[in-house]
Amino acid sequence: MPQSVISRLTRYLAHVQTLCAQDIKWISSQDIADNLGLTSSTVRQDLSYLDFSGVSKRGYETGGLEKVLSAILGADVQWKMVVVGAGNLGKALALHEEFSRRGFNIVGIFDADPKKIGKKVGDLAIMGQREIPMVIAENKVDIGVIAVPSSSAQSVADMLIMSGIKGLLNLALTHIVAPKHIPVVDSRVVASLLELSHTLKFGR
Description:
It contains nine helices and ten strands. The protein has about 200 residues and is of the alpha/beta class. It folds into two domains: about 5-70, Arc Repressor Mutant, subunit A (Orthogonal Bundle), CATH 1.10.10.10; about 80-190, 3-Layer(aba) Sandwich (Rossmann fold), CATH 3.40.50.720. The strands form three sheets. The protein has a six-stranded parallel beta sheet with strand order 7-4-3-8-9-10, sandwiched between helices. α8 (about 150-160) links the parallel β8 (about 145) and β9 (about 165-170).
């Protein structure tokens, strides 16, 4: 499945979850498109990747669509995560309640600065990076979040990979090299801002 489709499916899931919370039972591809700034043909084409069909003149049943989207995106699984980097960004992530609600449970936060070791971030105490292998092994951690400066991002990634991590979310502004069996997703905050600045400057 193309990455662009996966990216849109995450938006569909968030929208459908909102509809389910509002007890809205049905949604059409046109309604989804209008709410997310897409075309109905794009929505229909994306949803054709799912083993789920709409109903003529009614659209998609929101509860069923939510379950199918959750399954294909892995949102129906509980994932364990660690955050490396206890700066402002790392601490904000560790305190973000939406992660646990979405099935992403942070079990450890680490930093290389000895002055930060032992300080609390929510319910977690910041640990030194030497503790990473033990925490990953004991908790069977799935995802490592890299929230360190670019200069140390690769070495942190290497440590996480050697410790048995299964996937990486890279928030550093640099490319991370990883084995093919370790998926790496780069944060696109700066790229997204550049896209926005282009639109603001030149229009759509």
